[in-house]
Design goal:
Blueprint (H helix, E strand, L loop, with lengths): L1 H98 L3 H14 L2 H5 L1 E6 L3 H16 L4 E5 L7 E4 L6 E2 L2 H21 L1
Parallel strand pairs: 1-2
Antiparallel strand pairs: 1-3, 3-4
Helix pairs in contact: 1-5, 2-4
Length: 201
């Protein structure tokens, strides 16, 4: 009887052990599958993150390179323009300023321009002249020019005009500018293409 009990105990033990071992192996296999799945998913996510980071880095690199190219081109263009302005200014400023600050030269130009106005317009003529030349031009305006035109033109002397003059009707409906600034701009427009070609090919 004790042998049978022992046999039965051993049988139950062996069956339980076998069943437990089998269930343990199944659990272990499922755990390995789940771990493999998690690792595979983590690899996929990591690959997506790396690809996105590489794409963003490439975009940033291209944008930065494009911005640098644009900034370089703008800087070069601005530098060329500054050099061109310096050259054109140096070539034109001195002679223009000197000529348009010479009272005798201005008298000739004013007379020539004023005489081209019609008789009715000349009676309503207005001039804006440099205040620095008031002492030399005012007597001439009231004397010789008034006599040549047959009427007294209105003359204002302004600090805003460094050289040259502006002329037009007294009502201010229009005017023609012969100031040093106007002449410099006019001369610069003709000099710029030549200076650009000489400087930059």
């Amino acid at each position: 009887m004790s042998n049978k009990l022992q046999e039965l105990t051993e049988k139950l033990y062996n069956e339980g052990l076998s069943k437990g071992k089998e269930e343990g192996e199944q659990l272990l296999a499922r755990a390995r599958e789940e771990a493999d799945r998690i690792v595979a998913e983590a690899h996929k996510r990591a690959e997506v993150i790396v690809n996105e980071a590489e794409r963003q880095a490439a975009d940033l690199k291209e944008k930065t390179a494009s911005d640098v190219r644009m900034a370089s081109a703008q800087c070069l263009q601005a530098t060329k323009k500054d050099i061109e302005d310096l050259l054109v200014g140096a070539v034109s400023a001195g002679p223009v300023d000197k000529a348009l600050s010479d009272p005798d030269f201005l008298k000739k130009i004013i007379t020539a321009v004023a005489e081209r106005f019609s008789t009715s317009e000349s009676s309503d003529l207005a001039l804006v002249l440099p205040v620095s030349l008031k002492d030399e031009l005012e007597p001439w305006l009231k004397g010789e020019l008034a006599k040549a035109l047959g009427s007294q033109p209105k003359a204002d002397f302004s600090k805003k005009v460094a050289g040259g003059f502006s002329i037009g009707p007294k009502d201010g409906s229009w005017f023609v500018s012969f100031t040093d600034e106007t002449f410099r701009e006019l001369i610069a427009e003709y000099l710029r293409p030549v200076s650009r070609k000489l400087l930059f090919g």
